[in-house]
Design a protein that fits this description.
67 residues, mainly alpha, 3 helices, 57% helix, 0% strand
């Protein structure tokens, strides 16, 4: 699955679904003062990065997967 497609799918997940997936991977779900779409975007980004790191999806190849 391509990175852009994966990110689009993750952005359709609810915040609860994103948090559950991150928790299962052992990734923090604390987002500080972020709310709404900014919070969803941050959680989706973390989930994508965790999945790239675990080899579940391919990275974008731009070298930013670890940011």
């Amino acid at each position: 699955m391509k990175t852009a497609t994966t990110l689009k799918i993750m952005k359709t997940l609810s915040i609860s679904e994103l948090k559950d997936a991150l928790t299962a991977l052992g990734v923090s779900t604390v987002t500080g003062s972020l709310r709404g779409e900014a919070r969803r975007d941050e959680l989706a980004k973390r989930l994508h990065q965790a999945r790239v790191a675990s080899g579940q999806v391919a990275g974008s190849g731009d070298g930013n997967e670890g940011e």
